[in-house]
Please model this.
Amino acid sequence: MDKTQFTLKLKELDAKNKNVIDLYNEISALAMEFGTDKAEKSARRNAYYLSMEFLIGRSFYNNLMELGLLQETKEILADKGIDINVFEEIEDAALGNGGLGRLAACFLDSAAGLGLPLHGYGIRYKYGLFSQAIQNGFQVELPDDWQRFGDPWSIRREDEKRLIKFADMEVAAVPYDMPVFGKRTNNLRLWQAEGSEEAQKISEYLYPADDTEEGKILRLRQEYFFSAAAVGELVEKHVKNHGTDFNSFPSYNTIQLNDTHPVLAIAELVRILTADYKIGFENALGVAEKTFSYTNHTVMPEALECWNAEIVKKILPDVYSVLIEIHRKQTQDLTNLGCSDKEISEMSLYSSGSFSMANLAVYVGKTVNGVAQLHTEILKNSLFKTAYKYFPDKFENKTNGITQRRWLMLCNNELSALIDGAIGKGWRDNVSELEKLNGCIEQITESFTAVKSQKKKQLFDYIKKCEGVEIPDNFLVYSQVKRLHEYKRQLMTAFAVLEIYYGIKNGTVKNFIPSVFIFGAKSAPGYKRAKAIIKFINEIADKINSDVQTNNLLKVVFVHNYNVSYAEKIVAGTDVSLQVSTAGLEASGTGNMKFMMNGAVTCGTMDGANIEIVEKAGFENNYIFGATVEDIEKLKREGYSPLNYLSKPEHRKAVETLTDGTFSDNGTGCFKDLYNSLTVGASWHGADNYFVLYDLESYVNALLTINRDYNDKKKFAIKQLKNTANSAYFSSDRTIKEYAEQIWKI
Ligand code: 26Q
Model:
């Protein structure tokens, strides 16, 4: 099908007599036909991205854009009296929960855009990340049945299904292919588990609760299920195309492990080669060493997966034997290298009855990478310090990126058009041309401010519709949107907002420019503190939004069910991006990059990719505050007494609203627990583990400085534009080029 035929068929569609969902499915099917017709044959050498999460969001507009059909479709529908935005209600595939999953989606987009053969493998969850409702200020989780309106962007491949064997059951893995359109068409293959009721559970939920043994086993099954399906298929293809010489396997296949979740793929490859093809163990391990690379996305200890060896033995006995064998080899290798017993135990993939997936990945992986410069340094100097001492060449950095196609062209058509006018359209294919903007910033500040107002208006209309909160035109917009976690410190923003609010009321904060603080976040269902923070923010929002004394100056919104599509609106309509994690704990952040590209200044700590962002866009065009990694280390070494930082009345007043009756936690005691976490600590951590009280004062000051600076609209617009102009480095096109050249060699 060519474009003329597509347009013809679209024009023939009898839109009047169809409901939105049928129309959506039919247009999508036409676009799929058009897109898959152009798909080319496989490349000689392919890279595969194994990931437990692919947070793709809505495919409809993005795919039409990538296929060059968006404008035509919009016009043809308009002729029929249909606004293309009606499809916004329909899908938002949340097969992931945050940064790691969205990064996977951006990477696939960039690889297709650059014409590089990178394909994804993951799980086709029946239910994606829960849909979030807010009841009485509390998060309530509802199932996300993302396929309820159909799934026109996937093709079921019945004939390519595989059998995955566990000790106690066999499960069919049925592939669903989602083409990834761009300069070339790549493939995202998601496996669905079929068979007995037990079997189907494997692909039912993203992150089922794993606080019971049953839950842990289910998660282990999920990880093995998709890793084994992927590796099994790649081996089979290799044998079909090249015979059973597996020494050439790594010449055709390179596999990136997205965090530890797919790391069992290593053991599975060794198992298949030794058991099914009778390759010697050392040879098989050698093949694995040349095939796999590992990306770490977090230094939080609770996220570094360890599997209880007894459970592995029970569920996957053959994989267990392989792991034990790899461990034996590892111990021997490390002893030969002269490592001490202590060093060996630090790097060991097996110790005290459990398997460390990170240590397995570091030992076997060809490369180990962090996702921002600081993060990679932390991997080298602390998390994997010993491994770095013996295998320094494995370690490299790949600073994250985001796709400018979804995160600028699609979500901010208006700014994109402004950029076209200023520097031409070349940046759309070659994003580094965005830098040309630096040469004409002064000339376009006014039109930029107009675009920003327009995007704010669209965002405010949407918030009015979804949240029922009205925000007056042109309020200054501060946003903090990301997963809810104590280390990301949404609680610190909540305190800062309260301080500003009380300051406005008692006259200590003067000439405050009307502002709104937008929060969006989901908490893991079992994470009590994070849920308490959501409740606290909602209480604050209710109080502030209903105060007639401050109403024309300050608003707070917690948007419910924050997701990719909501993010597309928020990043475009924001002035100030809040990125305030405790230094050393946010591996990179990618939301920070989306905001930057859309012309927001960053108000943040020296953490993750914030550091590189302000280096590129200029410290003077952003607002850095708070403790650095070195400061935090010093505080930990010399002792930190958070109570000292509560001596100032304005801080105390804000923090004590948790316990003084200002707000209600509906009798749950969850606010008192938050308060205690800051002031006395808990059995598993000291007081104020994330240095909220330490950074609070400089945070409030930064927020107020920004507010004052906004008085000079032109100067502020220049700062914002400097961010857009220097954001090309944070395109995932750049990141993917680095992976392709330095790790994958594709
Ligand atoms: C671990 C054990 C058991 C159950 C779940 C998990 C688990 C699940 C998801 C651990 C970690 C994750 C997700 C991590 C994540 O999203 N990390 C983010 O990755 C982004 C992309 O590199 C970075 O930008 C963020 O800084 C990082 O937080």
User: Anything to note?
Assistant: The first strand starts at residue 46 and ends at 50. The chain is about 50% helix and 15% strand. The pocket of 26Q is lined by residues 98-100, 103, 210, 297-298, 303, 305, 371, 400, 586-590, 608 (CB under 6 Å).
